[in-house]
Specification:
The protein is an all-alpha fold. It is about 75% helix and about 0% strand. Helix 2 packs parallel to helix 4. About 25% of the residues are buried.
Length: about 200
């Protein structure tokens, strides 16, 4: 009876410490695996591993620890499968309330469509980044982690985190600029066709 009570208390402590970070863990898994089903499997495996070793964990912050576990799961378990990566439209599976917190609700439907298209484009660009840059940018910009926590989660020096973030941001900017230039070129071509029609 006492053993069951101890187990229940341990489970409750684990849930209280880790459940708050479930969204961030899933988000990283989703960007690393690029597959919804694999991301769910990775998160489940992450939480199982974390639960098994929860009594031995002595770190100060649980979030970097969980993110390090899910990262290892994604790179080890799913790399073995050697499945062909199937890029997915990430915005398609995102909840509608996932809009930026500081953004005021849009009244104009046209503006809301433009904002959704920009969010989809950003997620597509992030998804196309090489894995080391992708994980750094997701942890910093999507999970709002400090450089120190990212360094702990990735098991690299803070300088490496800063370098990866700088490279990731440069790649994102280049991709955004290229995307924006293509969109402008299409608009200009459409306008010219309209004039001559």
């Amino acid at each position: 009876m006492a053993c069951d009570q101890d187990q229940d208390e341990r489970t409750a402590r684990f849930q209280n410490a880790t459940i708050l970070h479930l969204k961030d863990v899933y988000q990283l898994a989703r960007f690393l695996t690029r597959n919804e089903a694999d991301a769910h499997d990775a998160v489940q495996e992450c939480y199982l591993r974390a639960f098994r070793s929860f009594d031995r964990y002595r770190g100060s912050a649980v979030k970097p620890w969980l993110l390090a576990i899910v990262r290892n799961v994604c790179y080890s378990e799913f790399a073995r499968r050697r499945r062909r990566e199937e890029p997915v439209d990430l915005i398609e599976h995102e909840p509608a309330c996932d809009d930026l917190l500081w953004q005021a609700p849009q009244q104009d439907p046209e503006t809301e469509i433009i904002v959704r298209q920009k969010h989809a484009a950003i997620r597509e660009l992030v998804s196309a980044l090489p894995p080391l840059f992708r994980e750094a940018i997701v942890l910093r910009e999507f999970s709002a982690m400090s450089y120190r926590d990212i360094a702990e989660a990735l098991d690299v020096p803070i300088g490496t985190v800063m370098s990866r973030l700088a490279r990731a941001r440069a790649l994102l900017l280049a991709g955004w600029t290229a995307m924006d230039g293509t969109a402008k070129h299409r608009t200009e071509a459409t306008n010219e066709e309209t004039v001559f029609v």
